[in-house]
Design a protein that fits this description.
The protein is α/β, with parallel strands linked by helices. It folds into 2 domains: 169 residues, Rossmann fold; 53 residues, no CATH class. The strands form 2 sheets. A 7-stranded mixed sheet has the order 3-2-1-4-5-9-8, sandwiched between helices. The chain has a two-stranded antiparallel ribbon with strand order 6-7. Helix 2 runs parallel beside helix 3. The radius of gyration is 19 Å and the shape is globular. It starts with 7 loop residues before the first helix and ends with a strand. It binds S-adenosylmethionine (SAM). S-adenosylmethionine binds next to strand 2.
Amino acid sequence: MIAQRPDLRSLLRPVVRKVRRQDPYAGLDPGRKELVDVALGRLGSRSFADLGGVWGVDGGYTFYALERYRPERAVLVDATVTPWVGERARRFRRLELVEGNFGSPDVAARVGTVDAIFLFDTLLHQVAPDWDAVLELYAPRARAIVVYNPQWTGGETVRLLDLGPEEYFRNVPHDPHDPTPLGPDGRPLYARLFERLDEIHPVHGKPWRDVHSIWQWGITEADLVGAMSRLGYSLELERSYGRFKALERFERRGFVFVR
Ligand SMILES: C[S@@+](CC[C@H](N)C(=O)[O-])C[C@H]1O[C@@H](n2cnc3c(N)ncnc32)[C@H](O)[C@@H]1O
């Protein structure tokens, strides 16, 4: 009988566990952590709002910023706040949790004025209001706007659904072997998407074409920088973090804009 060799992942598991025990933030993306370090460290921001900071990371960048920099005020906003995040948030007196759509003026008013806004992996999801309207909504409220976003390298800014099903699925992180992954709202993301674009989504109460759980925009760097410049911001720092998975027309980029 041939003895089975343990795979690399199970060999590494105890090491990964040990590192995480020593540094609970070791599993976070180094690029986004670097952007937090610039905003709270180098720029000295004393308050921030992390817009859409929950899914997949359980508020990780918010908690990292809170523990490392001890700001005076922090706000974590998401349409869906998990019980774990709610529980952990209680340990931070200066953290406010807001469950709601950060594109709504009411939620923006609850965020109020902060030194820095984080938009990590959220800008390309914004429609109704669109990504540039969201920037406009928060511009009067923050000195620094920090964006980490898969940026579109495919020419003009595009609403991805307008590409049609074939091109849409070629350009978004969608595994054809797993057609029904669940989104942050617990609903299948892509099953029958193009058939139900005009149906009302049961969680968000608006047509599927306008929900933020799916990929919505390919935003070019020129359009993002141009929109921020019109709002009075200049680019303090820009980073490229390489291709977004195997997607040919998306590159992970980080931006720190200041006024
Ligand atoms: C792709 S995840 C990114 C999570 C985290 N910021 C990160 O960098 O890994 C997008 C998150 O933003 C939230 N989200 C997106 N648009 C939103 C909106 N308009 N209002 C509230 N939450 C939103 C989703 O619920 C989800 O938690």
